[in-house]
Amino acid sequence: MSETTTPAIDDGAIEIGGKSFMHDSSGRLVPLDLIKPQHLLEDQTVRKIVGYAQSLSDQISRFRGHTFDDVTSFAELLAEQYGAKIGGKKGNVTLASYDGLFRVVVQVADQLAFGPELQVAKSLVDACITSWSDGARTEIRALVEHAFQVDKEGQINRAALFHLRRLQIDDDNWRHAMAALGDAIRVVGSKQYVRFYRRANRAARWEPITIDLAAA
Predict the structure, then answer these.
(1) Domain-by-domain residue ranges, the chain?
(2) For residues 172 and 180, what is the distance between their CA atoms, to the nearest angstrom?
(3) Rounded CA gap, 78 and 203, in Å?
(4) What are the angstrom distances between the C-alpha of 58 and each of 48, 51, 54?
(5) pLDDT tens per residue across span 151-183
């Protein structure tokens, strides 16, 4: 981003009767000449940084949209010319530069939710644990307890639930529980992700091109 970019945020000053005011954090109007210099400097610093941050965020949003448009246009053009499709299921696409040094990866991930059958599955799994009594392996007990726990965002541990479904246990209640668990899964939408990679040469490992302030 150019250093000359104008921050998309005003200075917060309000003119009333020929005198300048600013709102404080409680919403009160305070005359500009009564605000301490260090507080004005802090306000100016924050507004400058946030202005640039907003400009950069808008730029990234536009870039993301253009990226998906470009990939989609290429895929449609290829399909039109050759009757071919790029990538696998759900629109996942990997494009590479001709020299093999750059890569664009577009991934589409399902967003899942769980229906009321989940509670049925939980009760059947609990019945299994009870019937197995001391014969139940502690590892399975721990996995079951972990799978149905709710995290701090109120979400069920999906990875642990899917791990449960892969267990082969010869028990009717368990099979019914896993059937209920499968029926509980709802695909409620999808989200697209795009990632960029480069490497110094064809023998080097792929390195991500970071567009993430925390990881930059």
Answers:
(1) 1-84, 87-216
(2) 12
(3) 29
(4) 16, 11, 6
(5) 555 567 777 788 888 888 888 888 898 898 889
